[in-house]
Structure to design on (77 residues):
C-alpha cells in the first residue's frame, strides 16, 4: 500500500491550494471571493471523504494478502 501516503499528500496540497486561492481572492476584493471560500470549506470535507472511499474501494477490489497469510500462521501455531 505504497499509494496511501502520496494520495494523502495530494489531498493536503489540494486543500491548501484552495485555501490559498480563497485568501488571495479575499484580499483582492474579488466578487467571487465568497464562492472560493465556500469551495475551500466544501473541499475540506469532500476531499478526505473521497480519498477514504477510494482506499476502501481499492481494499475491496484488491485484498491485502498479508493479512490472509498472518491469519493462517496464527492458526497453525
Amino acid at each position: 500500500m505504497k499509494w496511501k501516503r502520496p494520495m494523502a499528500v495530494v489531498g493536503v496540497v489540494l486543500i491548501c491550494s484552495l485555501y490559498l486561492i480563497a485568501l488571495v481572492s479575499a484580499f483582492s476584493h474579488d466578487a467571487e471571493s465568497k464562492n472560493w471560500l465556500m469551495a475551500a470549506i466544501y473541499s475540506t470535507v469532500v476531499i478526505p471523504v473521497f480519498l477514504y472511499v477510494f482506499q476502501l474501494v481499492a481494499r475491496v477490489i484488491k485484498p491485502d494478502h498479508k493479512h490472509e497469510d498472518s491469519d493462517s500462521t496464527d492458526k497453525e501455531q
User: Anything to note?
Assistant: The mean pLDDT is 76. Residues 4-76 form one domain.
